[in-house]
Amino acid sequence: MTVFHRNEKKEALPSALSGGVIAIGNFDGVHRGHQAVLSRALERAEMLGVPALVLTFEPHPRSVFNPQKPVFRLTPPPLRARILEAMGFQSVIEYPFDVDFSQRSAEDFVRSILVEWLGASEVVTGFDFHFGKGREGGPAFLMEAGSRHGFGVTLVDAFRDEGADVVSSSRIRNLLADGNVSEASGLLGYRFTVEAEVVKGNQLGRTLGFPTANMKLPPEATLRAGIYAVRFRRPDGVIRDGVASFGYRPTVTDNGAAWLETFVFDFSGDLYGETCSVSFFGHLRDEWKFDGLDLLVAQIRKDEQEARALLAGVRPIGELDEKIAF
Hints:
The chain has helices at residues 32-48, 61-65, 77-87, 99-102, 106-117, 139-149, 169-177, 181-188, 204-207, 293-312, 319-325, and strands at 2-4, 21-24, 52-58, 91-96, 122-126, 152-156, 193-197, 213-215, 226-233, 239-247, 259-264, 275-286. By secondary structure, it is α/β, with parallel strands linked by helices. A 6-stranded parallel sheet has the order 1-4-3-2-5-6, sandwiched between helices. α1 links the parallel β2 (21-24) and β3 (52-58).
């Protein structure tokens, strides 16, 4: 898959990708609501016999307008690109978003990006997509612009779950803040997954007989502190079951930063420096402070047994889940 970043935005698009169907949106989480838009774009591209591309924006616009409160990204760009590739897209265009870009007119966005650069044959987006200075470009504007410039426009209604509630990234973030990774995964259509480099910690787990792969998540991550049954994927695609602790390690430190520490079952190799992913299958318990390391070790053993039992019976919740966590 080709991913176009900031420094490539003015380069000509490869001819093999020009004239495609463009799915437009932030697609943070690539959840089932996003997948309704993305699947429609894939269908239209197949029908027209042209490439299927995704146009998204980096960083997230909300983080640009309110940098003091950056958005908790459900899928950082590399992970999002991997998911979109698994869905069948040929390219992701991560267009740079800043204050200057937000002041460009809707007509300029259509003409310079969709028409002149991408040569879009069709645009697919959500029914509430707005763009341009002051959000002047809405569905009606986009459809009229498509008529003038010669590209089709498909608008997709909001996707609702089995309870008739709209699926949204903010709703999923709230579930993760409560530790409800199971329901969050149901809305995502795949197990909630994080991706980061494995770095050295204080190596206490190794001395206790439970060596962990340590990752730092962004400070804005609002995943509930606690113990989770997980699957751990290395860059070569090999997946192993594990149990992970996300939180502040109250038994061994008073003011530490939040870490994700994964005890990978039946593994003894070196993972330092590898960018790995962790998929969450179930919340086992909250983070507790123990009166001594012996009690901590005894509880870790129980957590391991519970995680092994939970993971032994899991099945994919869909095609995308199978590609990511199985």
